[in-house]
Structure formats: structure tokens, C-alpha cells
Amino acid sequence: MNNLKTYCLCIHDELLEKVKNLNCIPVALGEGNYQKGWVRDNTGTNISYKNKYYGEYTFHYWLWKNNMETFNDKDWVGFCAYRRFWINKEKDGDSEILLKDAILKKTPEVWNNYDVILANKVSMNNIKIIKIIKYGKLALLNNPKSILKRNRNIRFQFDMFHGIGVLDKAINLLDKEDREDFKNYVNNNNSFNPANLFICRSRKLMNKYYQTIFAWFEKCEKVFGFNLEGYGKIRIYAFLAERYLPFWFNKYAKCLDWPILFNDLTKEHFK
What we know:
Elements: E1 4-10, H1 16-21, E2 25-28, E3 39-40, H2 51-54, H3 57-66, E4 76-81, E5 84-86, H4 99-102, E6 116-119, E7 122-123, H5 129-135, H6 137-142, H7 154-162, H8 166-171, H9 176-188, E8 191-192, E9 198-200, H10 203-224, H11 231-234, H12 236-252, E10 255-258, E11 260-262
């Protein structure tokens, strides 16, 4: 029996059939006009109007408030996006990979030993100098040692793309039980599991994560608000969560890293 339920989060109505053909549950984010067949985050109890700032978390909120009772702990509930997909491990690294052949459709046996699956880590060491010069001048001035690969941590990468001081302000709003641990995590690690992707088989664990992240967002809203401009800042809540999610799950659960594939379904000739 296949107990994997993968929600594919999209903002393009024309992708409905492509998503269905990949055996994913199609999710349309935000309050736009979409054809029938999508799961929508603007029904029931929702914050769909915040999608511009929260990104995929408007759907996570909808799922938490409206649909959690439909899952049991035999279900693996996961999330991908129209440009990032979970794939079979043996297909990882294949340069000629076809998404339809590689996409993960059932849970591997090794997962039975874990609570949560996270996307393979990305390293801050891979940030190109030209990007640092273009986007990270202030972050580099704030931490000149980061010019060396070994000194680039999660904090430096966040400051570079999302503004110096933002992360500190957000961390200070966390509850005591996570505040210092998360600060140490962003200061002492040079890689993290990206893209707000995870697969989880514990409804209790998901509930706890959602309670924690949305309580934090509520506090952050009072500081950052919604008068935000520029890609790196307008979705600040989603970007904060992208760093917090792997920290939180690794602290409170047994996690396994797993490969994902970047493959944009909006391209006419996607693989």
C-alpha cells in the first residue's frame, strides 16, 4: 500500500494536469482564479491573503486548521513545489534524469527508522564570489571573514539576501526553549536543508511544528509588518521558516536527508 501523500504547491493554473500526472496532489496558492481540480488554501479557516509574504506557508496554515484530522501516523505527508520534487535516491546525480521516471511515488523501507525526511543540504561554501559582490557587500562588511569559504555560515547567507539584522530581530522573538539553540545553529553551521520541503509521518509532530512556527510568525508580523519590497524581503516569513524548519525538526525528531530535483514545470520542454 502506498502511504505517501505529496502535495505539490503551485502558483500557475496551467500546471494542473502536469502535477496530476506526477501522482502529486495539486495545490493552488493564494487568492487567484484557478480551474476546478486544485486544492485551495483560501477555503475554510485560512490566511490565503498573506501568500505574497508567507509563500507556501499559507497552505501549511490551511492544512493545519482544516485537514490534519484526515491523516494518521501510517501516512507520510509531504510537500514539493512545481520546481522542486522528491526523487528516488538511486536516480540522484543522473544528468539525463527524467522527472516522470525519477519522482518518488512510494516510501522507501529505510524511512521506517525516521520521523521526518528533509531535502539534501545546500552548502554556503558554494556561494560564488560574484554573488557575494552583487548581493552581499553589506553582509561582507559586517563579517569580513566570510570572504573565506570556511567562515560562511547560515547567518551570513541570510544577511546577504534578506537584510542585516532581520534574523537577529526574529530570533529574539522565539520562545526561550529554542532561542539560543537556533542562534547557535545559524552561527555554527554552513549548510541547511532548503526550500521549506519536508515529509513527515507524525500528526502530533506536524501539529507541534505548526503551532510553533505560526506563533513565531505572529510575533514577527508586529516587527516586520507587510510594507515590504523586493523579492528577498517581501517573503521574509517564508525565508525565516526556511532556516528554522531544518533546525526545529532536527532538534525534535529523527530526520533523514533525501535528494530533490530542480525541474521547472512551467518550461515547455521540462524533463
